Amino acid sequence: MPTPLTVVGIGNAIVDVISHAEDAFITQHKLNKGTMTLIDSDQARALYSKMGPGIEMSGGSAANTIAGLATLGGQCGFIGKVCDDELGDVFRHDITAVGVKYATPPLNEDPPTARCLIVVTPDAQRTMHTYLGASVELGPDDIDADIIGGAQITYLEGYLWDRPKAKEAFRTAATIARESGRKVALTLSDVFCVERHRDSFRELIDGHVDILFGNEDEMRALYQTETLEDAFSAVRGECGIVAITRSERGSLIMEGPTLYEVPAAPVDRIVDTTGAGDLYAAGFLHGLTRGKHLAECGRLGSLAAAEVLTHYGARPECDLNEWIAARSA
Amino acid sequence: MPTPLTVVGIGNAIVDVISHAEDAFITQHKLNKGTMTLIDSDQARALYSKMGPGIEMSGGSAANTIAGLATLGGQCGFIGKVCDDELGDVFRHDITAVGVKYATPPLNEDPPTARCLIVVTPDAQRTMHTYLGASVELGPDDIDADIIGGAQITYLEGYLWDRPKAKEAFRTAATIARESGRKVALTLSDVFCVERHRDSFRELIDGHVDILFGNEDEMRALYQTETLEDAFSAVRGECGIVAITRSERGSLIMEGPTLYEVPAAPVDRIVDTTGAGDLYAAGFLHGLTRGKHLAECGRLGSLAAAEVLTHYGARPECDLNEWIAARSA
Question: Is the peptide bond before B105 cis (omega within 30 degrees of 0)?
Fold first, then answer.
């Protein structure tokens, strides 16, 4: 029998195309700075033709988190759909190269593997446009009940909610996890994603999610509150642990009546914020699956996030354990 | 009538897959550190499956030089073959995004676009394994006589010599350029490439090449001499300008009896040496096409090379003119 996994992620299987540009590019093309916008294949072609030279790297929110967890030493799995094409090969190679179990069968025909066109401005903010391609073909059949039932935590990205079939897969997985006495974690992904799916997110969180990740804007959008405190009041009692990232102000972790404030880890120069939230979740879940105190989970999250802030792309470029150890003396 | 180009490059159209590894990886897989080895598609698959997570970026030696020249403001062209596939799109996008004229029609069927698997070790050395794929389908029909005849300099990479059809394209282009009273530049590419093609390289250089680029090992291998000085003696009279890069010791430029010694540009931390020689040639040719003194051409070469040493990949990540200006005060 295979070793049960610590965390299984379910999300969009995406290759990022990262390019830098001045702020004028954002203004000129009327892009929504700092957010993620869904685009179709024609829009993707049009935007790509205007972007500067790029670098391609595996991405996808939950996939980034799982890759981070695996480099920290966790036995992890990922479920997400690529096409049997060159970018699909890249995605599969990169996630399995860090030891993640990844067995979702690829599509044998169109649509192609998903790609996210990312424009990074000099302030290190990333503006993302995603063509979901093969990703949205993920369905309930791709959910392996044995894997989900055996894993300590099933980690779901909010972005999956954007397509009915993937949403169904998402719900199937959450149900299996809960029925097996396992934990379910959810990341809210993006403020517009929250706006699109507010009601069904709230329905899911109320009693079906154990660990919730998000940032301040997403939490306020979710509960339609002015302040983060009010959002905390709304979610308290519905969800066991809530971890909220606040950029350079670190994170806030709520567990029932208790709130922990965790500082951000210092970074010499922030190059690209892509994946910072994803890696925060990786560090956090790494601590949690090892029974660490929540404040320590937050500290590990801050450190893992700091690493991906120092370079382009959302996957760690060095041994995360060494990175954390060097900053924990 | 279109504006004549300053430099047209002819070379392999390649996407690099860059991954880092400890020296143990090089030893374990018996790789030839610091060199370029040609591999077939099965070997590429086998090596890729052992490599860690990668980043994909456009590459190719002459293509890197031309992309560098274009970011410096030159009106440049590139001739090289991709397949009509995803990596081919990446290559085409990246080179045209910096303003390079690139009109070589892609293959519509296999082999796929060429890729170079690059392992970067902690000492910043890169070890390259290239699957040439569609690149080797470049032939004399792809050589546009008007473009070559109109460009100030036709720049050829030695790697093209590895396949008869591409070599024929190479010779066709050199003949057109010479007959139009234009200059021909050649880069030796790699010491093993020189070993493979010593006689035909020497035949070409003797009277058909105006500007020769290489490093010390390549020059000594080409003329089978113990010292670089002896190699210079051998080439003197056969080729107008010879520019030899010497890593941290900068470069030596020979023109007839005169030798210029140019220091390397200082770099805080060398991350990856991939493309340093290619960008040296870009800076050098940028100076040359603007009528600069050879010592100044060398200085521009050193500065352009320094930029790509500071990050992964062989294409500049910032505005090279700004980079050079900031270091020329």
Answer: no
Domain around A157: 7-11+61-106+138-326
Tell me, yes or no, whether B1 lies in a domain.
no
Q: Is B268 an interface residue toward A (CB < 8 Å)?
A: no
Compute the distance between CA of residue B279 and CA of residue A265 in angstroms, rounded to an integer.
Answer: 36
CB B166 within 8 A of CB B147: no
Write the CATH number for A276. Answer: 3.40.1190.20
Q: How far apart, in Å, are the Cα atoms of B174 and each of B142, B181, B291?
A: 13, 11, 22
Which of B20, B53, B315 is facing A94, going by the closest CB pair? B53
Domain assignment of residue B2, yes or no: no
CB B132 within 8 A of CB B12: yes
Residue with tokens 């029909």: B141
Domain count, chain B: 1
User: Quick check: is A320 in a domain?
Assistant: yes
Nearest to B97 among A53, A67, A93 (CB): A53
| Cβ atoms of residues B66 and B9 within 8 Å | yes
SS3 (DSSP) at A187: strand
Partner A contacted by B291 (CB < 8 A): no
Contact A53 B112 (CB under 8 A): no
A54 touches chain B (CB under 8 A): yes
Interface of B with A in 64-83 (CB under 8 A): 67
Q: How far apart are alpha carbons B29 and B129 in whole angstroms?
A: 12
- Assigned domain for A1 exists: no
ipTM of the complex: 0.93
**Which residues in chain B touch residue A51, judged by CB atoms under 8 angstroms apart?**
93, 97
Chain B environment of A54 (Cβ under 8 Å): 57, 90, 93-94, 97
Beta pairing, strands B211-215 & B126-131:
unpaired
Tokens describing residue A307:
């690493």
Give the pLDDT band of residue B222 (cuts 50, 70, 90).
very high
**Chain B CB contacts of A53 below 8 Å:** 58, 67, 93-95, 97-98, 315
Q: Considering only CA atoms, which of A239, A185, A194 is closest in space to residue A215?
A: A194
Distance from CA of B293 to the nearest CA of A (A): 31
CB B104 within 8 Å of CB B125: no
Residue A303 tokens read as: 């450190």
**Which DSSP string do the residues of A286-304 spell out, in sequence order?**
HHHHTT--HHHHHHHHHHH
Distance between CA atoms of residues A291 and B69, nearest Å: 55
pLDDT tens digits along A53-104: 999 999 999 999 999 999 999 999 999 999 999 999 999 999 999 999 999 9
| DSSP codes of every residue in B235-246 | HTTT-SEEEEE-
Q: Are strands A258-262 and B14-20 parallel, antiparallel or unpaired?
A: unpaired
Quick one: residue B291, left, alpha or beta (phi over 0 = left, psi -120 to 50 = alpha)? Answer: left
Average pLDDT over every residue of B281-286: 98
Q: What's the one-letter identity of residue B8? A: V
